[in-house]
Amino acid sequence: AQKITQTQPGMFVQEKEAVTLDCTYDTSDQSYGLFWYKQPSSGEMIFLIYQGSYDEQNATEGRYSLNFQKARKSANLVISASQLGDSAMYFCAMREGAGNTGKLIFGQGTTLQVKP
Amino acid sequence: EAGVTQSPTHLIKTRGQQVTLRCSPISGHTSVYWYQQALGLGLQFLLWYDEGEERNRGNFPPRFSGRQFPNYSSELNVNALELEDSALYLCASSWYGVPTEAFFGQGTRLTVV
């Protein structure tokens, strides 16, 4: 069964520094997709970045980049130049299977706090 | 352009009651997804609706149900509420079955007492 593991319940980072949030996944599918979402205290889930299993290059979106290591089944999120507004809960998620199930599997999340 | 809107934002219900949560997708999106986020836990997939049909269902009991209307808005109904149903219920929408580009609403926080 597909599974997402985020081993860091909480992380601290100094403003303007970079931070890496860990995510490992387990799947037997060859085709899958990996996502990162940000959830501020307001509750809304904000899409940050997507990586397909066949994408050869790591995905980047502005200050966000995804360090995709397929052999190690890891998809870590790197946030460069942290800002106070980055303080939030971050979730790693996976699209289940190659077919169209409409379902995303989420990890337990990592709380990031950016210090001024 | 309006995002995904959910109502109500907060709700308090008594154990055994029934509740209906509502979701309006982004204009043009035909798929609506419902997730449950219990306190301190990740999101659990509940339901996926597209074009008025239930396309997939998560591992939840039948007292969790819903529907999608012709305008693609959706309702989530929970019958016989239990204390453990207390959670943030998030709705997301996307083009047909493409959760890669799903946009979420701010959720409805349900408290069962």
Topology of helices and strands:
The complex is a heterodimer of chains A (116) and B (113).
Chain A: E1 3-5, E2 10-14, E3 19-21, E4 24-26, E5 33-39, E6 46-52, E7 60-61, E8 64-69, E9 74-79, E10 88-95, E11 104-106, E12 110-115
Parallel strand pairs in A: 2-12
Antiparallel strand pairs in A: 1-4, 3-9, 5-6, 5-10, 7-8, 8-9, 10-11, 10-12
Chain B: E1 5-7, E2 10-13, E3 19-24, E4 31-37, E5 44-50, E6 53-57, E7 64-68, E8 74-78, E9 87-94, E10 103-104, E11 108-112
Parallel strand pairs in B: 2-11
Antiparallel strand pairs in B: 1-3, 3-8, 4-5, 4-9, 5-6, 7-8, 9-10, 9-11
Structural account:
The complex is a heterodimer of chains A (116) and B (113). Chain A has 116 residues and is mainly beta. Chain A contains no helices and twelve strands. In chain A, strands 2, 5, 6, 10, 11 and 12 form a six-stranded mixed sheet that branches. Chain B is built from no helices and eleven strands. In chain B, a hairpin with a 5-residue loop joins strand 7 (64-68) and strand 8 (74-78). The chains are: A mainly beta (116), B mainly beta (113). The interface between A and B is medium-sized, with 24 and 27 residues.
Radius of gyration of chain A, whole Å: 14 Å
* Low-pLDDT windows of residues of chain A: none
Mean pLDDT of chain B: 93
Parts with pLDDT < 50 across at least 5 consecutive residues of chain B: none
**Number of H/I helices of chain B:** 0
Largest sheet of chain B: 7 strands, mixed
Which structural category fits the helices and strands of chain B?
Answer: mainly beta
Helical/strand content category of chain A: mainly beta
Order of helices and strands of chain B: EEEEEEEEEEE
From the N-terminal CA to the C-terminal CA of chain A, the straight-line distance is 41 Å
If interface size is counted as residues with C-beta under 8 Å from the partner's C-beta, which chains form the largest one? A-B, 24 and 27 residues
Q: Number of helix segments of chain A? A: 0
| E-strand count of chain B | 11
Strand content of chain A: over 45%
Rg of chain B over CA atoms, rounded to whole Å, is: 13 Å
